[in-house]
Structures are given as structure tokens and as C-alpha cells.
Amino acid sequence: MTADSAPAEGPHPGEGSSKNPNPLGHGPVLLLVNARLTDGRVVDVRISGDRIQAVGTTGSLGPLPAAPGGGTSTTGARIDLGGYLLLPAPAEPHAHYDVAFSAALPTPPPETPADLIRRVTEGALTALGYGATAQRTHVRIGDVHGLRRLEAVLTARQALRGLAELQAVAMPRLLTGRAGADGRAQLRDALKLGAAAAGGCPDLDPDPLGYVQVLLEAAREADCPVDLHTRGGDPAQLARLASVLAPLRPRVTVGPVSALTDGGATVLAGAGLRVVCLPQNGGCVGLEGQPGPLRPFLVRELTEAGVQLAAGAGGLRDLANPVGRADPLEAAYLLAAGGGLSPEAAYEAVANRARAVLGLPPVRVDAGFPAELLAVRGDSLAGALAGGHSRLVIHSGRVVSRTSAVREFADTVALALPRQNTPG
Fold first, then answer.
1. Which pLDDT tens digit goes with each residue over 162-174?
2. 173 near 200, Cβ under 8 Å?
């Protein structure tokens, strides 16, 4: 007995139309019908190219009207989303795909170009299957690594074009003094090569403040954002770092700040810094030592202080989190289940707040917005976070991933119970 089946669709995108205004090579129109929104409305959504073209009541939308000059535009696909909740697609703002799945590999894991590209690609596709159409991965550069890990991420990014948007953050270990000369050179080369942001962990450098100053100079030269690792446990150091970083706001992100002390949230808010927390275990491989979980009510303190808070996975079955998942809805569930945020605010943290960290525009299920969408089985956001396994992912107006959850029961129960939770 199938519990959650994939939504039915017509011809695949791209069929039935010779005109193709979308550079990714798929058909111009996608029609989603019977989709439930978080406010309870059931609507049809028409997508043209990479944008939402119209949202209307059920049955009110169809193919686009005839084009000027007598041409026609046909529907590339019609997908029935009955029983599904339609949401803005989430994003992954803090991953480490260069070490993804390494917990089960020899130590150290293989680092040939082929191995690295395969790990990065598999990590990105795993997150995409959960709904993250935009992703940011932090990559160690310099020392014995050189730029090979970054080169693997950039190769995977190109291969994933049309499926997901992948950004890389270059992470040198040291930047100050004679010992940091290699890191400084590698950072400049990484940003020229195509890294989207400058990052790293100031706490690992003998001069954390000097580390940040070097990083900011490189970021200004490359006109790119900064994305830093810190536990935030030293109030004085955090205040100094925040003061130095503040002039670059809002293009500065810090995380996971799992060791933040009283008053730290106010310091971050006053500096206008965005924060990415990691609800799964509070840490990642970008920080030395064992990760520590987010202390109770830290999320609430950050939001009440006015911090722009996003959430990410951090680890995907790596040494920092051997059971780590790349599921944004898991991160949102943990934020909501811990009592720090409502389901709506928790999902915003993995969706539009996460997109803002990546420098991407917001998404709403409304005309004119980017067609970056996630359809998940459920009748409400709370229900989707509690157990939305079946998913359909749309990136740039095209269906790029489907997951269908199937549940079967033995025929030994006499009661006439339903085999699935069917909304409505």
C-alpha cells in the first residue's frame, strides 16, 4: 500500500514547445495545481521560465495566452499537488561537502580530485533532494590542501548548474605573521579562482583580530562577503571582532556561536551581523574540538535581540557529526521542537533567512518571485516539519528532484484504519 505517492504530472518540462526563453534549456511553462499554502488557501501556480508568473484559485489558470505574432506557449508540465504543502525552497547556508561522508572512510579520507568531486557532488545532491536549491559549503584551503578542495567544489558547481546553486567559502587556517603568509596568498588566489566568500575560524589563529582584518581586506578587494566560524564563548574577543566586522554589514555572517554567553546576542545584533546556527549538534569540522549543542533558549535570545538568524546542517556524516543530515526541514524541526521558534519562524530561518546569507533574493509563492519552491507532503507547516517525507523540488522553474515515501503495513489489523494521512 503506497502511503505517500509522488504527485501526478503531464509531459515533462521542455516537451511540446520549440521556443525556449529559459537559458537552462527547459520549457517555458510549468503549472502546479491544487497546492496548499501555509495560510490554508489551495491554489494553482503557473511558472514561466524561472519566475512565478501567476497564482490563482484552483482551476483558474492554464497555459499562457497566445504570444504576439500568433505564436503559442504550451504547458510543459501539469503537476497535481493535492495533499502537498507548497513552500519557498529552503537553502543550506553552512555545509562542509569536501569532507561529507568521511566518517565512514579511512582517516584521512582520500583526496584525489575524483574522490573530492564525488563527495562534494553527492553532498550537494543529498541536500537538493531534501529541498535546498541554493547551498554554501565551507572549504579548507592552504597548508597541505592547497586549492585542490576548492577546485573540486568549483568543478562540482559547474556540473550541478541547472540543478542547484552552489557557493564556496574559502577557509585558510592561518592568516597572520610569517606562518600565515601561505594562507594570505592562497586566500587571494581562491577568491580570484571563484570562491564566493572569504571565511575561516579566527579562533584558530594566534591573532584572531589580525586574522579578521586580513580577511576583510581580501574581501573588500574581491568585493565578496565574509562568512566566519566562531563559538563566540569569549565575550571580550567577540565584542572586538564584531566591532571590526560591523563596517561590512550586512555582508558578514558568523556561526555557529554555540558557546555564546550572556550579552553576546546583543553584541551581534548591535554590529548587524547575520548568524547561522547549527541545530543538529551545534558544531562542525570548521571548529577544533568536540562540538557542543546549542544551550537552551540561545535561539530565542538571538531572535529577541534582533539578530538575523538562519540555520544550517553543518555536517553531513563527517567526523564532527557522523550521523549528520543535510535536511533543512530537520534543522527547522529542531528549532521549533526546542521551543525557541514557532514553526513559521523556524522555516523562515532555513528558507529566506538562509537565502539572505547567500546574497539571494527572497521567495514567496506569489507572482514575480523566483520559482524556487518545495512541495512537501502535509496539510500544514507543523505537519510538514513533523514528518514530510515525500517532496518535489523546483529550481529555476524546473522540477529537479522527487522523493516518494512508501509505507506498508501487514494485513493483520482487523480495524478499518486509513493507510495514510490524507489532508482533507
1. 999 999 999 999 9
2. yes
Note the helical H segments in 68-204: 113-130, 148-159, 181-193
Residue 387: Cβ within 10 Å count: 15
CA distance 377 to 309: 26
What pLDDT does 108 receive? 81
- How many residues comprise the chain? 424
User: Which grid coordinates belong to 92?
Assistant: 543550506
Distance separating alpha carbons of residues 22 and 331, to the nearest angstrom? 33
User: Sheet harboring 197-200: ordered strands across?
Assistant: 91-95, 134-141, 165-172, 197-200, 226-230, 252-256, 274-277, 309-311
Which residue numbers in the chain have pLDDT < 70? Answer: 1-28, 62-76, 296, 412-424
Beta bridge partner(s), residue 142: 146
Q: Is the dihedral of CA 55, 37, 392, 312 positive or negative?
A: positive
Residue of 391, 323, 423 lying closest to 131 (CA atoms): 391
Which pTM value belongs to this model? 0.89
Give the Cα separation of 163 and 231 in Å (integer). 33
